[in-house]
UniProtKB/TrEMBL annotation:
Reaction(s) catalysed (UniProt annotation): meso-2,6-diaminopimelate + H(+) = L-lysine + CO2
UniProt-recorded Gene Ontology molecular function terms: diaminopimelate decarboxylase activity; pyridoxal phosphate binding
Protein name: Diaminopimelate decarboxylase
NCBIfam families: lysA
Gene transcribed to yield this protein: lysA
């Protein structure tokens, strides 16, 4: 079982399935899940994989087999989780900004829902009284995460019910006798500091006594993984120890379950995007390397200024030069500016690492280019889990009319 796929394995996948291609190392996903389970040990901690990071059905089925539950962010993710074989009782739907009908649909499917607005909580009460126990997503007013775009718990964030509206929340709960089973917070992505979770727990523990039906507290996801050598990461052992100690210190009669929703931690490092070099362009400013990809396939560098490690796997020991790696779409799609790489030639394979989370999932067909194929490798065996798009995929839902 390898932590990383080797250059030879990646080259073999590119030969067999072509490029651009997303490759996922299932052994690594398994290791990450076991690392979490090992750290939290305790029965009271439940892991819900945040499906939004990567929803391929084969990946979901594998994660189910590992024993994890799943957290969804849309009704379609709920349906994919069901298709992947998750029982409704293992599916959580943490909604945000959705129309009430989507909440109804999820509840009717037997899925547990975290509601993130007073608006929808009021609707739930008015229409269903106390028929469905639910969770509520709170906004704890904590600034956390790698950058503002992925910070979700601060006092200007759209997510959750602001904690300062607790009175209004309790009024609705009381009026309809709604059974609140779970309190949820998620403060952001790329959180490296366990103290953020402790802060969240402190906010929640002030509120918990108001909720007699509570069975769990959901601390969301956001565990930071390494995107580059020496990158600070969250220490899940230390996190587990801090969180469990904090719960022991606060708890009186009720022993609540503790839920987490990791996305990146589970799949980021397991993923690779393999591209091939179309051309090299020398200019007075820089040497561009253009690959057969772009922000249509991996948008994180352009959207979040995210750093992704890149390597030239077909010429790993060539003389190192600085290259600006760009895509082939008709936008400024710079993956990296002046990145030192072993000499790059036409046809070389450039690999982008940490492409498992929010890679394929945020891909589009911009410029009418095809989304890549997806391949999974488990115990040395590579299998296609999604074909590359074809022209038919681009036109499938179009209705051509003569005007
Ligand atoms: N739970 C909730 C309610 C979330 O909103 C998210 C992520 C997660 C869990 C999982 O967070 P993770 O463990 O993956 O950090 N596209 C951005 C990240 C946005 C995350 C959105 N919510 C990126 O590529 O950095």
């Amino acid at each position: 079982m390898s932590e990383q796929l080797t250059n030879e394995e990646l080259i073999q996948v590119a030969r067999e399935f072509g490029t651009p291609v997303y490759v996922y190392n299932a052994d690594k996903i398994e290791q990450q899940y076991h690392k979490l389970r090992g750290a939290f040990g305790s029965e009271r901690v439940k892991i819900f994989y945040a499906a939004k990071a990567l929803t391929n059905l084969s990946v979901l089925r594998f994660i189910k087999k590992l024993g994890a539950n799943v957290d969804c962010s849309s009704i379609n993710e709920v349906k994919l989780a069901l298709q992947a074989g998750f029982e409704p009782s293992r599916i959580l739907y943490t909604s945000n900004g959705i129309h009430f009908t989507e909440i109804e649909e999820a509840l009717q499917l037997g899925v547990f829902v975290n509601i993130d607005s007073l608006f929808n909580l009021q609707k739930l009460g008015a229409q269903y009284g106390n028929k469905y126990p639910v969770g509520v997503r709170l906004r704890p007013n904590i600034m956390a995460g790698g950058n503002l775009k992925i910070s979700t718990g601060h006092d200007k964030s759209k997510f959750g019910i602001p904690v300062e509206q607790l009175d209004q929340l309790l009024e609705i709960v009381k009026k309809y006798n709604i059974r609140i089973r779970n309190l949820h917070i998620h403060t952001g992505s790329d959180i490296k500091d366990a103290a953020v979770f402790v802060k969240g727990i402190e906010v929640l523990f002030d509120i918990i006594p108001h909720f007699p039906y509570l069975q769990s507290v959901d601390l969301g996801g956001g565990f930071k993984v390494a995107y580059k050598e020496g990158d600070p990461v969250i220490d899940v052992e230390a996190l587990a120890q801090k969180v469990l100690t904090e719960f022991d210190a606060h708890e009186t009669a009720r022993r609540l379950e503790i839920w987490f929703e990791p996305g990146k931690f589970m799949v980021s490092e397991a993923g690779y995007l393999i591209t091939s070099v179309n051309l090299i362009k020398e200019t007075s400013a820089t040497t561009f390397v253009s690959v057969n990809s772009g922000f249509n396939h991996l948008i994180r560098p352009m959207f979040y200024d995210a750093y992704h490690r890149i390597s030239n796997i077909t010429n790993p020991s060539g003389p190192v030069k600085a290259y600006s790696v760009v895509g082939n779409i008709c936008e400024t799609d710079t993956f990296a500016w002046e990145r030192p790489l072993p000499e790059v030639r036409e046809g070389d394979l450039l690999v982008f690492y940490n492409a498992g989370a929010y890679g394929y999932e945020m891909a589009s067909t911009f410029n009418s280019r095809f989304r890549p194929a997806e391949v999974i490798v488990y115990k040395g065996n590579a299998q296609l889990i999604r074909k590359r798009d074809t022209l038919d995929d681009l036109t499938r839902n179009q209705v051509v009319v003569d005007l």
